[in-house]
Design a protein that fits this description.
Largest sheet: 2 strands, parallel
Number of helices: 12
Length: 225
Amino acid sequence: MALKESFEKINTMQNHQYFQELCSIYCNKLISVLTDNYIKYNFDVIKTEPCSWFFHCMEKLDKNSSFLWAFYYFLKQNYPECRNKIHNMFMDWKETETVLEEETIICFFVIPFKNAFNGFWAFIRDEITQIKTVEGMDDFCKLMGDFYSSDSNDDMLGCLQKFIQKYPGYRLPNEWLGYLHYSMSMWNNAIACLERVDCPLFFYEDEIYWMLAWAYGLPGSRISA
């Protein structure tokens, strides 16, 4: 069922016993639509129809999902409330002794919040001190802050390369490094990075293949030369 039809259907089900669960699933889907597959925010996203559907549905939800409400307050630019909801997420993870891994932080923070607001990634770094994490997570959050505060592609490339040298097992930095090389028409560098991406966490797999295919076929690449 298409998103618009789903929205219209959900609006007829407010008295249904599973309305809250269905509405939560739908809101999570809308977050994917609004945030997937681009690295930096353009806040024109707020003007889109899916965003209006998201706001409408969220205002019918209870307060049980800290993540959904954190994203809601982020789009509303109510950053203190956004921080409060994110803090609640970390408290829940602390209580359940969750070990924060790369995939988790990408799913809950990198993809939906991206460059967010000033100080966002410093705030996340403070929060992760309260829970268990895999090795390098503090440096990964610092990388996100450095990346988003960089003024040029060269600065972005530099901070990604420095992190990869120290933590070669992290997956997202290779995806972003390959994408940046690709966007700068540095085909061989893009190929070298993207070929190391075994199971992407940020881009869809077919997008990785598309960038590789395009880079392989252009003049100056090691295949076409």
